[in-house]
Design a protein that fits this description.
Blueprint (H helix, E strand, L loop, with lengths): L1 E4 H6 L1 H7 L5 E5 L2 E6 L7 H27 L6 H19 L1
Parallel strand pairs: 1-2
Antiparallel strand pairs: 2-3
Length: 97
């Protein structure tokens, strides 16, 4: 995978665009990745955006499942979940009054 700084993108846009032909490019700022540049074929933008959003949602779901396993929340019964929701709602109502 190719990495390009924000500054390089600004000063060498045509070169970076040409590099996209051979694969994805990671845009970095202060040494940290900030964006993924990928080539898009005409007519596939909406489908590609949908797929990227779906992939992000799947990643987030896996993180949430892992956090639930670590905290033990994955073993809660529905009655325990309902009790927790009720308690949080009571706390919010009391705080908001």
């Amino acid at each position: 995978m190719d990495f390009v700084t924000v500054r390089e993108l600004r000063t060498r846009t045509a070169e970076v665009q040409a590099r996209l032909a051979s694969g994805d490019v990671v845009l970095t700022s202060n040494g940290r990745p900030t964006a993924l540049l990928t080539r898009v074929e005409e007519g596939e933008l909406e489908e590609l955006v949908r797929e990227v959003r779906l992939a992000r949602a799947r990643m987030q779901l896996r993180r949430m499942q892992a956090a639930a396993r670590e905290s033990g929340a994955d073993a809660l019964q529905m009655a325990d979940i309902d009790a927790e929701v009720t308690a949080v709602r009571r706390e919010r109502r009391a705080r908001d009054q």
